[in-house]
Specification:
The complex is a heterotetramer. By secondary structure, chain A is of the alpha/beta class. Chain A has eight helices and 22 strands. Chain A has three domains: 172 residues, FAD/NAD(P)-binding domain; 54 residues, no CATH class; 161 residues, FAD/NAD(P)-binding domain. In chain A, β4 and β5 form a beta hairpin. Chain B folds into two domains: 126 residues, Glutathione S-transferase Yfyf (Class Pi), Chain A, domain 2 (Up-down Bundle); 151 residues, Rossmann fold, CATH 3.40.50.11810. The chains are: A alpha/beta, B alpha/beta, C mainly alpha, D alpha/beta.
């Protein structure tokens, strides 16, 4: 049975991505007790799945390393992974929360030695790599996974495969009897940082994602470029493993579109500008990128990043929302449309098409287990009526990492205001 | 008492001796097999089609459709209207939608209808025959009567525009609708994938801009051939006519050797249900579907 | 320029956008375009050099007040009513209908291109089908082929001979229709009266807007 | 902690260590060279039982120093957590067996590697003491907020709501800043369709009602001295005396100034009263107050053109090269002022890229719906006429180069420049100059805002374009002046909504900094670190390298010109330690000695052994994790390397390198983060300074007449899991090529 120590001066943070980790760390480093709840078996969220950041082209895992070190060093944070909040009752300063824990089937004895992974032969989709590859059903989600513990996928529990894994473990770390459990805990304030999900590209039917193998999404492209990814960092076509040297980026794939997401997702322009660097990095002058856009939203000081990319002769810009994609006999996606600057028709074949899919709040569709107010796009709005529950990061707006962390830091203070009040009242 | 009854709106082309008379014939025998009763709306009139926009203006177009609504409503109460022509269906649905969402337009329409001694209470549902088959009956029901599966025959399901956009068949994607393919498979044929499935045939512009329309039609037929299709299958009289009757001219212009029969889904179904070439109105095809004629003969 | 045209030009002075919003079917949507160009790219692409101006450009021209260029343009007349633009527009503009609306307005003002074949088709079709309530396909084809005068008609007729013969053989073109026969509605009178009323009402509605 | 030291080594034989290594030999090494009083082996050291064994030795057997020889320091951190005990980690798993092939020929060298890591762990822990915490803490918990605009007011209120006292200093006579000059602001809530009240009055009222907030109007900072938790701030009031406030931390929210539109004569500004900037338009709107918009001459405006990016996104270098972020939404809002008052006013917005992120898209749509016309075009000129202006532009959609519009009024979106005070890096002080003790040359203008009494200048270092933003994406509140945070448009161009979010976050960080200063704990990135630098001043030569090189301005000079450490400003990177030529600076648990001892602990085989030894000094944040993850992927590398993690390349003292070479190492690899403009060093200048210092090692090598290649400086990123092992092997090969060092066995 998992035990959680929490009082009405505890801050509950829901979501263990960079926003949730930030909110939790800032609060804990200010002396507050924090419970951090994450649905995945690992922390870090979507930033951990990025290869590089704009505009510095540095690596998200570098910041993750620091945040994990802060976390390991801080006894005030309790982390629950494979955990989902199922109910919240009570009011500001006095919430009762129930959390559902899905079994990992691996306990704290795990040393991440990897013997179970070797023993198991069953494979599952590699979720960390957006299912672009397969991994063993006994797996460490990724090299920086925290907790640094393996996971036995539920699909093999109750099969001989799981028994193989158990037999291979010298440390009694594998517990196939683990059951789903529900823990209850108190909290004075709650930070809701459940982040975002990439818009489902299959809904953008003219682009034939899911039908044409060489039409992928921007988040998938990050995994292709990453040495930890399914291709070991090589930019290859899913259809035939050929080098993708002529890459198209389609902006507003789902965003700024009343048939899909009404809002502008903000990060995608910079994201694609950044990804043209991956093509250049991989193939030098042989790598060509084309960005199809409506407006390039390289906001504030990012403008100079845009200017640099524009100056690169290997990157071209076409002001056009691509109308549709067809596929030629070599499975090259062919983009059809009109360059609106002076009406020029095009039908351009590319090796690979990257859809800059937009940001959909994860809370959308999910009923947030409390009266949290969301706008019609599903983003959490600041709501006086719920003065003890605060949105943070991309659950509140379409934000880039930098702004998400600001938002999370602000949310931490709002939560602290509540628990400090409780503390003063009880003092 | 048939299991389903509809107020039937055949449309101008699907009349005896008209350009889609073979569509009508095959639909009638198909419905007989499926025990669907279709009763023609008494004295129905033309929908105006899309092309009339310039001369007709807005209101007169809706009024033309409104008259059919009123006639169906009063003569065949409680029955949904079913159209076989894509343009009729679209025109009627557009008018229904516009009238129901624009009270001013509705008022004017009623006033105009008064001149013909008619008025509208509630506009009936308007369905395309394909919707009746798929949604009201379902593929399983359509499969049951199949006596002679069209085994080993390769068809390109040509959906075109107006049964597909803007309303479309429920649950289908605009870019790659699969209902025709499913119908083909339901009657035992093979639906070949090809990339001109929803390309526009030029519509009415086949008359006014023949060169441009025929360029489109060429792409469609070519792609069907390239992907191994023997015949084209459509749900729309104008698509059928355009893709069929201009093949000769296209051959002249482009030096192609097109000779691909273009059928209605209803013709395939009649044959699969064991109907004769005549019941399937095969003689109505300008480019004779020899393979099917033999099949029907067996 | 025709009289009606001058009146409207004067009425709306330099505000062509407003003119379109009030006078053209669905014209009120023009202002909502964000110039992404998906409509232009969606238009049947083998049609070049068919379009002088694709929809998104037409909308921009309207906003820029290029009244004559727009109204006299061939472009709207190229619409096949395929509805690709309509379903893909991220701003949900009913582009197909806007194109029809602008074309219809240009025709109403008498400034549409002379001998525009699609315009002629539209006139012919509507007159044909409203005459008896139903289309008479033979007369339709005849009047289409003879639109450019008798000789041209013969020529076209010959060109189309195979097509026609094919249809006749297949019993899908009934020569009898040419001679008074063919399909018609019973209540032709009612239909005529109804349509006359509709025309009148529509004219009234548009005039009222212009007057406002 | 027990008075006398007792050293213990614990060796794990789990995770294959037992199978791959001769554990008995490791134990012997720990006893003999390691000189551990206690040496124990456990088959599963990180298990509850193994940890309990260590715990028991500490509690009942007086063990004070523990060398854990098992897995990487990055693994099982929580298990091996003994807060009162000095701990070192010998990395036998990721550091040895996971990067070595399991073959007979490899066995010997792998074993040597493991034994060295055991000796190193023992040597390190013996040189360590457990940090006791900074004694010179300041306990003050009052927040100073500089600037009374939207950002400043928000920081003040949010901090006060958390129960902290706030001193708010505003240089003008009223609170509200630019926002107070706005007729309305861009909407912040659904449906995002219409401008909303600017909200200033409400905030001002809240501040006046809050007993925790003390406001100084018409006031500036004359001097800011001290350190986090104990700042002394002199506040100069326009009228009256200068008062001194005791402050714990500071939020600087000094906002922006408008870009001077007079620099845009080609756009008609200054030439015609009917060309205004966005601020000018707000004045007209306030005058109209919802009624018809009139221009300066009282004429009702019937047509208006908004020119976006006026003097912004400028490639020529003449104007602002950046985008100010908020101006598109502002023009959308201002166009609505006209349309809402009179729908017949012609409003045209000329833009190149319309930038309305997030729900701004709804606001944009709403403006279109109100009839505002948006045209993609580049404005070349605004020609003032008697009664109207002519805007000439290139219409990019209609590709009309000669497009033009007549308008009664033209509004220029000119953007902002930050009020960030003095640019202390205006003339960078190169370490070279520094050695001669030259202070950084400081610009005369503009006038300082904080007037910091810091050795390294009076204001916050600037980032880009004069904005004081953090350089880190993951850490937007990183600051180079501990407990001083900037917020709002001074930090980065932003709109009110973002500024208020930012101001709240800055208040959070400032509060956190005060709390931790009081506890003697370090701020980010070594948050909570209790160690702090001390200097044996008797050995100091007053060279001032430490004071100049400290990236955080933690070190001043006392009246006798000795370094004066302000521990609560210190971020514990060790750059001062690395800089010190006489090695008098050290931390209790990280010193010249803790690393030096490890270097000496490595057993150097003789010249003829064909077994070179290569020392790796690796940044603990990026390079060391990269080595770890390479190991997790079982990417093998040479058995001749011995890796030691360092806090930062900046903390690397050249003595380590010369000692290593003198004691017979054949090569030294330095692995640090990227430096330069896009630096990735989390101590800002650490890796750069380190590299600069080490570039001087060349001379040493010459004097020892060793090949230059024997010291190899490698830039490493945390993702280099494939390339790093390859580079290590290449280097090992090169060393074998150039031959063994002659300095062995001395």
């Amino acid at each position: 049975m998992t035990s959680v120590v929490a009082t009405n001066q505890t801050i509950l943070v829901v979501g263990g991505g960079i926003s949730g980790m930030t909110a939790a760390l800032e609060a804990a480093e200010t002396g507050k007790q924090v419970v951090l709840v994450e649905r995945n078996p690992w922390l870090g969220g979507r930033t951990a799945q990025l290869y590089r950041y704009f505009p510095k082209m540095c690596h998200p895992t570098c910041g993750l390393e620091i945040n994990l070190r802060r976390l390991k060093a801080n006894p005030r944070i309790q982390v629950l992974t494979l955990a989902e909040v199922t109910g919240i009752s009570g009011t500001k300063g006095d919430y009762s929360v129930t959390v559902k824990l899905t079994p990992r089937h691996v306990n704290e004895n795990c040393t991440a030695c990897g013997d179970c992974g070797k023993a198991v032969s069953a494979e599952i989709d590699d979720a960390f790599n957006y299912n672009l590859g397969k991994i063993k059903a006994a797996y460490l989600p990724h090299s920086m996974a925290y907790p640094q513990r393996y996971v036995i996928d539920r699909s093999i529990v109750g099969t001989p495969e799981a028994d193989k894994a158990k037999a291979a473990c010298k440390y009694g770390a594998i517990d196939l009897e683990q059951q789903e459990e529900v823990v209850s805990l108190k909290a004075g304030a709650i930070v809701w940082a459940t982040g975002w999900k990439p818009y489902d590209a299959e809904k953008i039917t003219p682009y034939r994602y899911g039908e044409f193998p060489n039409v992928i999404t921007n988040v998938e492209f990050e995994r292709l470029a990453d040495p930890h990814g399914p291709t070991g960092g090589k930019i290859l076509r899913p259809s035939d493993g050929r080098e993708a040297k002529n890459v198209a980026f389609i902006q507003c794939a789902g965003s700024r579109d009343e048939n899909h997401l009404r809002h502008c997702s903000r990060f995608c322009c910079m994201g694609s500008l950044k990804q043209t660097h991956y093509v250049q990095e991989a193939y030098g002058d042989a790598g060509k990128s084309t960005i199809y856009y409506i407006d390039i939203r390289a906001i504030d000081r990012f403008e100079d990043f845009y200017a640099k990319v524009k100056a690169n002769p290997n990157v071209s810009f076409i002001k056009s929302k691509v109308a549709r994609i067809s596929q030629d006999k070599d499975q090259n996606p062919v983009l059809w449309g009109v360059n609106t600057e002076g009406y020029k028709r095009y039908s351009n074949p590319h090796d690979l098409v990257v859809l800059a899919v937009g940001m959909e709040p994860s809370v959308k569709g999910v009923d947030i287990p409390a009266e949290v107010m969301a706008d019609s796009s599903g983003f959490i709005m600041a709501d006086p009526a719920n003065a003890g529950i605060f949105g943070a990061g991309c659950a509140t707006n379409a934000l880039d990492v930098n702004r998400a962390v600001q938002s999370a830091t602000a949310a931490a203070l709002r939560a602290i205001q509540v628990v400090n009040k409780v503390a003063r009242a009880e003092a | 008492m048939a299991r389903k009854e509809y107020a039937f709106y055949p449309g101008c082309s699907s009349q005896k001796g008209a350009s889609a008379s073979n569509y009508l014939t095959s639909v009638e025998s198909m419905c007989k097999t499926l025990d669907i009763k279709i009763t023609e709306i008494p004295d129905w009139n033309c929908c105006g089609a899309s092309i009339s926009y310039a001369e007709a203006g807005e209101l007169p177009r809706h009024v033309m459709n409104a008259r059919n609504f009123a006639l169906a409503e009063s003569n065949l109460p409680g029955q949904d209207i079913v159209a076989t022509c894509a343009a009729c269906w679209l025109g009627a649905r557009e008018s229904k939608e516009r009238l129901e969402h624009n009270s001013g337009l509705m008022a004017d329409t009623q006033e105009a209808l008064k001149e013909a001694g008619l008025n509208i209470k509630a506009i009936p549902e308007i369905k395309h025959m394909v919707e009746v088959l798929i949604e009201d009956l379902g593929y399983d029901e359509l499969k049951k009567p199949v006596k002679k599966p069209l085994a080993g025959m390769k068809f390109a399901g040509y959906v075109g525009c107006q049964t597909n956009r803007p309303f479309g068949i429920h649950g289908e994607s605009f870019e790659n609708p699969v209902y025709l393919d499913k119908l083909i498979e339901t009657v035992g044929g093979e639906a070949v994938p090809y990339d001109q499935k929803v390309t526009c045939c030029g519509g009415a512009l086949a008359f006014s801009e023949p060169d441009k329309a025929q360029a489109q039609i060429k792409d469609i037929i070519e792609s069907a051939y390239d992907n191994g299709a023997e015949m084209l299958v459509t749900p729309c009289p104008l698509c059928q006519a355009n893709t069929e009757v201009y093949q000769g001219q296209i051959n002249k212009k482009y030096g192609t050797k097109f000779n691909m029969p273009v059928l209605y889904y209803s013709q395939l179904m009649v044959l699969a249900y064991g109907g004769s070439a005549k019941e399937a109105a095969l003689p109505g095809n300008v480019i004779r579907a020899r393979k099917l004629e033999e099949f029907a003969g067996k | 320029m025709s009289n009606a045209n001058e009146q409207m030009a004067a009425r709306y002075k330099n505000n062509f956008l407003k003119e379109i919003e009030e006078q053209a079917e669905m014209g009120e949507w023009v202002k909502m375009c964000m110039q992404c160009g998906v409509c232009s790219g969606s238009c049947p692409t083998n049609f070049h050099p068919g379009w002088d101006h694709p929809p998104q450009e037409i909308f921009m021209m309207i906003r820029a007040g290029k009244r004559e260029e727009v109204l006299t343009s061939n472009s709207m007349w190229m619409c096949t009513s395929c509805y690709n633009c309509y379903v893909r527009c991220p701003r949900k503009l009913p582009i197909t209908h806007i194109m029809h609306g602008i074309a219809e307005y240009a025709y109403r003002l008498g400034v549409a291109p002379k001998f525009q074949p699609t315009l002629h088709l539209s006139q012919t079709f509507w007159n044909n089908c409203t005459k008896t309530g139903r289309v008479n396909e033979v007369k339709l084809t005849q009047s289409l082929y003879f639109k450019d005068g008798f000789m041209a008609g013969i020529k076209k007729g010959l060109e189309m001979k195979d097509v026609a013969l094919g249809l006749v053989k297949a019993k899908r073109l009934n020569i009898m229709e040419a001679l008074g026969g063919g399909h018609k509605c019973k209540d032709i009178k009612g239909i005529q009266a109804m349509l006359a009323k509709a025309k009148e009402l529509e004219a009234k509605r548009k005039a009222a807007k212009a007057a406002a | 902690m027990a008075a006398e030291k007792k050293h213990a080594a614990y060796i794990c034989s789990g995770c294959g260590l037992g199978e791959r290594l001769d554990i008995a030999a490791l134990e012997a090494a720990a006893k003999k060279e390691g000189k551990m009083q206690v040496v124990k082996t456990h088959a599963f050291l990180c298990s509850a039982e193994g940890v309990a064994m260590i715990r028991n030795d500490i509690d009942n057997d007086g063990v004070t120093h523990v060398a854990i020889c098992a897995c990487s320091r990055r693994a099982k951190t929580e298990a091996f957590n003994f807060p009162t005990t000095a701990i070192s980690r010998g990395n036998l798993r990721e550091g040895v067996i996971w990067v070595r092939p399991d073959t007979d020929e490899a066995r010997e060298t792998t074993q040597e590697m493991a034994e060295d890591y055991v000796r190193m762990a023992c040597a390190e822990v013996k040189a360590m003491t457990q940090p006791s915490g900074n004694p010179n803490t300041g306990m003050n918990k009052t927040l100073l907020v500089v600037g009374g605009g939207m950002s400043g007011m928000t920081s003040a209120l949010e901090a006060a709501k958390a129960g902290y006292k706030v001193v708010l200093v505003e240089k003008t006579g009223a609170l509200g800043g630019w926002a107070a000059k706005l007729y309305k602001r861009v909407p912040t809530r659904e449906p995002f369709k219409a401008p909303q009240d600017n909200g200033v009055a409400d905030l001002v009222a809240q501040i006046e009602a809050d007993a925790n907030i003390k406001v100084y109007l018409n006031s500036t900072l004359a001097k800011t001295a001290g350190a986090p938790g104990r700042f002394k701030v002199d506040i100069a009031m326009e009228s009256g005396p200068t008062v001194t406030e005791d402050i714990g931390a500071i939020v600087q929210a000094t906002g922006f100034s408008l870009y001077d539109a007079n620099k845009l004569p080609h756009l008609g500004y200054g030439k015609s009263p009917h060309v205004v900037d966005q601020a000018g338009l707000e004045e007209l709107a306030r005058a109209a107050n919802g009624g018809v918009m009139k221009r300066a001459d009282g004429k009702e405006v019937k047509s208006v053109v908004f020119v976006q990016c006026a003097g912004q996104r400028d490639a020529t270098g003449e104007h602002l090269s950046y985008c100010s972020g908020y101006c598109c939404n502002t023009s959308v809002k201002q166009a609505m002022y006209f349309k809402d008052a009179n729908p017949d006013v012609d409003c045209v917005v000329l833009y190149t890229d319309l930038r309305t992120p997030g729900n701004g898209e709804d606001f944009y749509r709403s403006a279109q719906n109100k009839g505002v016309i948006f045209s993609k075009g580049v404005v070349s000129e605004v020609v003032p006429g008697g009664n109207a202006c002519t805007v000439k532009f290139h219409d990019l959609i209609l590709d009309d180069k000669a497009a033009q519009i007549e308008a009664d009024l033209v509004v220029l979106a000119t953007g902002v420049v930050p009020n960030s005070g003095v640019n202390i890096d205006a003339v960078p002080a190169a370490p070279a100059e520094a050695t001669e003790g030259a202070a950084p040359v400081v610009e005369e203008k503009p006038i300082s805002i904080l007037n910091l009494d810091y050795r390294q200048g009076p204001d916050i270092p600037q980032f880009k374009f004069g904005f004081t933003d953090s350089h880190f994406i993951c850490f937007p509140y990183e600051t180079r002046r501990t407990a001083i945070y900037t917020a709002g448009p001074v930090r980065r161009p932003m709109d009110i909504a973002q500024a208020q979010e930012d101001a709240t976050g800055a208040a959070m960080k400032a509060i956190q900094a005060m709390e931790n200063a009081g506890l003697g704990k370090a701020a980010h990135p070594r948050a909570g670190d209790l160690s702090f630098p001390t200097a044996r001043l008797e050995g100091c030569t007053q060279c001032k390298r430490c004071t100049v090189e400290c990236p955080f301005g933690a070190i001043d000079e006392d009246e006798k010109r000795f370094p004066l450490f302000n521990e609560s400003r210190c971020r514990r990177c060790g750059t001062c330690m690395g800089a010190c030529p006489v090695r008098v600076i050290s931390f209790e648990n990280y010193s010249v000695n803790t690393v030096g001892a490890q270097i000496k602990a490595v057993n150097i085989p003789d010249e003829f052994s064909e077994k070179p030894r290569i020392l790796i000094l690796a940044c603990e944040n990026d390079a060391y994790p990269a080595l770890d993850m390479a190991a997790m992927n079982r990417n093998e590398y040479s058995a001749f390397v011995r890796a030691i993690p360092v806090r930062c390349l900046g903390s690397v003292n050249t003595i380590w390198i010369t000692d290593a070479l003198n004691s017979g190492y054949d090569g030294v690899m330095l692995m640090g983060c990227k430096h330069g403009e896009e630096y990735q060093c989390h101590f800002v200048k650490g890796s750069e300074l380190g590299r600069y210092r080490l570039s001087k090692v060349g001379d040493t090598l010459k004097n020892m007449n060793l090949e230059a290649e024997r010291v190899f400086d490698l830039e490493v990123a945390i993702t280099d899991i494939d390339t790093l092992p390859r580079k290590i092997n290449d280097y090992a090969a090169k060393i074998q090529e150039i031959g063994m060092s002659p300095f062995k066995g001395f």
